[in-house]
Write a structure and sequence with these properties.
CATH topology of the largest domain: TIM Barrel
CATH superfamily of the largest domain: Aldolase class I
Distance between the termini: 26 Å
Structural class: alpha/beta
Mean pLDDT: 91
Largest sheet: 8 strands, parallel, barrel
Shape: globular
Strand order of the largest sheet: 1-2-3-4-5-6-8-9
CATH class of the largest domain: Alpha Beta
């Protein structure tokens, strides 16, 4: 294909696949797309294990790594202890969760017995994030590093430039994209509100041309579209608007390789696009996820206001972890409560398949869409 992305990374098809599952990453890159491994929560040692496995299974094709690193790190160098963090959580938030779980027949004994660490840990600080980045750059097939939490900090940009690795960043608003461009990134992932996980309020169809308009002053930066994209025809529409490729996440959650819990995967396969919600109930920031009694409970009149990130995760993750475990054993209350991040494209994810087949389906559907556009212009 004639695309800036294909030239930039030497790939056949400008389809990015974000996943926390190494099997998905290897399969997509080997099939001609570009896999990007979510590395949040990894130490340098565990990331090296994952990337070594990908290297052995991606047929020498390029792939990337995605991190969450704040632009400003100085104030976070003096990390609070788990106990100090725990003291910042109002007791009513935990009591609300305990009551909610009990209503669904779930044993809550010991749920908050031990102080919980912030799941992002040292990766929030330069020392930890730098170690993870260095571990990634030890792998020659890593050709892209992406920051999903604002403009990449200078140390990330500098290390990437030294290694000849491209840098990307996610943008959920026009002003975010401008900041990324000013920081010198090579690629901007323009993510509309339809996306799963952290997302803004503007739709992909509106946000992509808004950002492209601003990028006239930055012709070397590639722009890829994200948000609810799960088919090749959507990819064709995004590229017709001027995007050089697409970034996808949700569509891989129902593949055979995905680590998605079976109970959640079953919900995804049966869900409509109207069964997702933007909620602060999981991380403290708005994330799109599958609607369940868990998300509904946090909009009730008696619900406490979700805490800011990362405190809300310390309330939600122990509970949702227990819910997920019980859901797999068939517990009816847990199966009802269980939820996970997913975009509005879930309504088009109706049958399980392999990651490789998803790439091929994208290619076929994309080609058919382009052919349809060609017929419109015929005399």
């Amino acid at each position: 294909m004639k695309s800036k992305i294909c030239d930039m990374f030497g790939v056949e098809f400008p389809l990015f696949a974000f996943s926390h599952c190494r099997d998905v990453i290897a399969a997509v890159s080997a099939a001609g797309g570009f896999g990007v491994l979510g590395a949040v929560g990894h130490s340098p040692e565990t990331l090296d294990v994952e990337l070594s496995w990908i290297d052995e299974h991606c047929d020498g094709k390029p792939y990337g790594v995605d991190l969450l690193v704040p632009m400003s790190l100085d104030s976070k160098e003096s990390a609070l202890t788990p106990e100090e963090i725990e003291d910042k959580i109002p007791p009513e938030h935990k009591q609300y969760v305990l009551h909610l779980l009990a209503q669904h027949g779930i044993d809550t004994d010991g749920l908050y017995r031990e102080p919980q660490r912030n799941g992002l840990g040292d990766n929030y600080r330069e020392k930890g994030a730098g170690g993870v980045i260095d571990a990634a750059f030890e792998h020659e097939n890593v050709k892209l590093i992406v920051n999903a939490l604002g403009p990449p900090p200078s140390f990330m940009m500098e290390r990437a430039r030294e290694k000849g690795v491209k840098v990307g960043a996610l943008a959920g608003a026009r002003e975010h994209a401008i900041k990324h461009a000013e920081a010198g990134v090579d690629m901007i992932i323009v993510s509309g509100t339809e996306a799963g996980g952290h997302c803004g309020e503007v739709s992909t169809m509106v946000l992509v041309p808004e950002v492209l308009q601003e990028m006239d002053d930055y012709p070397d930066i590639a722009v890829v579209a994200a948000g609810g994209i799960v088919t090749g025809r959507q990819m064709a529409a995004a590229m017709a608007m001027g995007a050089q490729g697409v970034w996808t996440g949700s569509v891989w959650l129902t593949t055979a390789e995905a680590e998605t819990a079976p109970a959640v995967k079953e919900k995804f396969l049966n869900a409509s696009s109207r069964q997702t919600v933007r909620s602060r109930s999981r991380t403290g920031k708005y994330t799109r996820q599958l609607r369940s009694p868990w998300t509904d409970a946090w909009t009730a009149a008696e619900a406490p206001d979700p805490l800011p990130m990362p405190l809300q995760a310390l309330v939600s993750e122990p509970a949702l972890g227990r819910v997920a475990s019980l859901a797999e054993s068939g517990h009816p209350g847990a199966k009802a409560l269980t939820t996970y991040f997913v975009g509005q494209g879930v309504g088009l994810m109706n049958s399980p398949t392999s990651a490789k087949q998803v790439v091929y389906d994208f290619m076929e559907d994309f080609g058919a869409a382009v052919e349809r556009l060609g017929t419109i212009m015929d005399d």
